[in-house]
Amino acid sequence: MSEDGTNTKSRILDLFVGIDETELDSIEQWICSKQYKQDLEKKKAIIKSDKMLLKIGSVIKKMVPFDGEMPSEKIIHPTVGDQADCNRINTCHIDEFLYDAEQVEDLVKEGKLTRHYCLECNSRNVKELTFITHSMSRELLQYVFKVLLPKDLEDKQFLDVGSRFGGVLYAAYYFTNATSIVGIEMNKECCEIQEKIIGQFSMDPNRIKIVHADVADKEDLIRNSDVFLMSVLDFFVTTEEHRNLWYYFKKHLRKGSYIVLNRSIADTLSGLDIFEEFIDWLSICKPCQMENEIFFDVEDCNELFLYTVN
Ligand SMILES: C[S@@+](CC[C@H](N)C(=O)[O-])C[C@H]1O[C@@H](n2cnc3c(N)ncnc32)[C@H](O)[C@@H]1O
Looking at the record's lineage, which domain of life comes first (predicted)? Predict the structure, then answer.
């Protein structure tokens, strides 16, 4: 590191030299503006909160098996939809909240994780494994709360349907002003982990709480919530249970509620053969905090969708 910033200037020049004139003009204007200072401060704040999530992830890693699936869980490989080809041989689960892309790369280098499986023993005839995750990555979670959803969630109840190790809830806790943050989870071991983290990190129990139940038995919780995150449930429910859950959500979600999904509603429901019945139920929304897109690699986040209930 040089005190006069020579190294940094050199890196900036390397970057700028590849940019076309028009884009360079707009970057120069931005650096000279007040907005740039504000953006820099916002970025610092995001990094600070991200460190908190990273710290929580490192504590959870010590509480769960390396493959991120609890002994009491019954994983059901999907038979319909875009993950129907996933089976125990060709699929590897690595929890993206606990291990980001860089950490996965390190695990591969250290030989603790492999990206391939052998089609015939002792041969070079290998195939890439399909990597799946049961949790959203820190990066996607920040995009959900800093770009996709409205900025002001005061007086709102946020509900994560199937909260697992709680990553979504902790991100909601540190990145939003939501008054109430609730996770519902059917697996007891996962609930215990979430309770421990909430206690260990001294989170306000009046603001964040875990409900150990099947979401299908908690109509009141659904009716009283305003903002929902529903990650793909493919590996946890049968096709029939999955269909029933969507009929149940359609019946109980209030008009105007927000829903974040990590697969489009069309793809989710077409896979279950029920899309026609839901065609007018939701409207897709633009991200509510577009000004913050600058802090994220937006292309990595294009599998996230925001809807409102009509
Ligand atoms: C894909 S994980 C999602 C974790 C977290 N929401 C995220 O996006 O990072 C789905 C979780 O939902 C839970 N789950 C599935 N069906 C459920 C149900 N009917 N009621 C409550 N939890 C459920 C599973 O046990 C699992 O932990």
Answer: Eukaryota
121 belongs to a structural domain: no
Residue closest to 170 by CA, chosen among 110, 302, 178: 178
Q: Which residue has the tokens 């979670």?
A: 141
Binding site membership of 164 for ligand 1 (Cβ less than 6 Å):
yes
Cβ–Cβ contacts within 10 Å for residue 2, how many? 9
Atom of ligand 1 at shortest range from CA of 167: 9
Give me the residue label for tokens 């019946």.
251
162 in ligand 1 pocket by Cβ < 6 Å? yes
Give the domain range for residue 147: 138-309
Domain count, the chain: 1
Q: What is the pLDDT of residues 41-67, one digit of tens each?
A: 999 999 999 999 999 999 999 999 999
Domain membership of residue 110 (yes or no) is no
The per-residue pLDDT for range 168-191, each reduced to its tens digit, is 999 999 999 999 999 999 999 999
